[in-house]
Amino acid sequence: MSHYKILEKLGQGGMGEVYLAEDTNLGRKVAVKFLSAEMAADLEARKRFTHEARSQAMLSHTNIATFHEVVEEGTKVFIVMEYIEGQKLSELAKTEKLSLPEVLDLAIQVGEGLLPIFIFCVCRGRSPCLPVFVFVGTQYLVPK
User: Fold this and answer.
1) How far apart are CA 136 and CA 13, in angstroms?
2) HSE of 126 in the Cβ direction (CA atoms, 13 Å)?
3) Which domains does the chain possess?
4) Measured distance between the N- and C-terminal CA atoms of the chain, rounded to whole angstroms
5) What DSSP assignment string belongs to the chain?
6) Of 62, 75, 105, 142, which is most buried with the most CB atoms under 10 A?
7) Residue 71, exposed/middle/buried by CB under 10 A (0-12, 13-18, 19+)?
8) Closest CA to 76 of 116, 35, 44
């Protein structure tokens, strides 16, 4: 897998799995999202996956994870993106009771992350909008 060393599994979704990895060339942690083997075998799914990665790589916002590259190595297809440490908002909601001002602050940050995505989709005639990773502040993650 070129210069990425997998450290641990972070999660799993409908399209594949996400891992914490080390970029051994640059000495930094990154998140690597692999397209599942089943999806990678489907040419249309591969095209959609790489297209979504290229589209998201065009976005730049504090609350959106930066995509570094999309890689196709044989049967493996993966996206390398910025790794941001934090807690999933869904986990936070289970463990802490948030005040109304805290909830409103989080909602505003989510909206601020989604706005550039919406504008990007509308300006380019893309519907529905692409799934993305939106980050809230420096402490909480909002999974797609």
Assistant:
1) 20
2) 15
3) 4-142 (3.30.200.20)
4) 25
5) -TTEEEEEEEEE-SSEEEEEEEETTTTEEEEEEEEPHHHHTSHHHHHHHHHHHHHHHT---TTBPPEEEEEEETTEEEEEEE----EEHHHHHHH----HHHHHHHHHHHHHHHHHHHHHHHHTT-SSPPP--EEETTTEEE--
6) 142
7) middle
8) 35
Which residue has tokens 């993650």? 141
Q: What is the pLDDT of residues 71-109, one digit of tens each?
A: 998 889 999 999 988 887 778 888 888 899 988 988 888
Which residue matches tokens 């519907």? 127
Tokens read off for 1? 């897998």
Strands 140-142 and 87-88: parallel
Q: How many residues does the chain have?
A: 144
- d(CA 86, CA 29) in angstroms, rounded, equals 13
What pLDDT does 138 receive?
46
- Cβ 102 vs Cβ 92: under 8 Å: no
